[in-house]
Fold:
Amino acid sequence: MTTTQKTEVALLDSGATENFIHPQTIEQLRLPIRKLREAQIIYNIDGTPNRAGSITHKCQLKLFFGKESKQMDFFVTDLGQDNIVLGFPFLQEFNPTINWTAKTIEPEQRIKILPVHLAEHRWRVWKKDHKLLPPCWRLRKVSFAQKWAAVADKLKTKLKEDGVPHKYRRHQEVFSEKGAERLPPLRNENMAITFKEGAPEQLDCHVYPLSKRELEVL
Structure:
């Protein structure tokens, strides 16, 4: 059980329209894949086609999260440094409780998976690893642990005052956080409006009420 159990890190992304998995992860975990009837084109946020090209295959997995289990599709594509992306379909199906402060997900921190095509999965393990898995799916569970963007944020370099060039330091009050909390000083009003000769002292303004339909348009 210890020799066959594997753990992979997954990115939890509510902006992803589907669940995705990296081709290298497919190979490492010996997961079966199925070809799509029609290739799916991936677009970036700016509308340009993704350099990874079209998606041609998917991996069907059964996910076990808490007391629930769901069968879901994971589309195979190059994810760069990420192995698996749990997108909006996962969040919609399981509706997990996410504590952003504590960086935890409930009811469990791990999501166990089982290949839908288990016989083919067992054959791949035997062919690649020369291991014959016992007829028990628990020996081939894979756990996905969530990865938090806050970890990456800690690695970013923060600009300090000593690193600002001298010619720009005279503007430091403009970008001061403490300075932004203060209100501007109180000054006398000096915005008098000079009227032209013959202008009325008072303007007779009429109020024209709008209909409900006109308010909806506005």
Observations:
- The two ends are 65 Å apart (CA to CA).
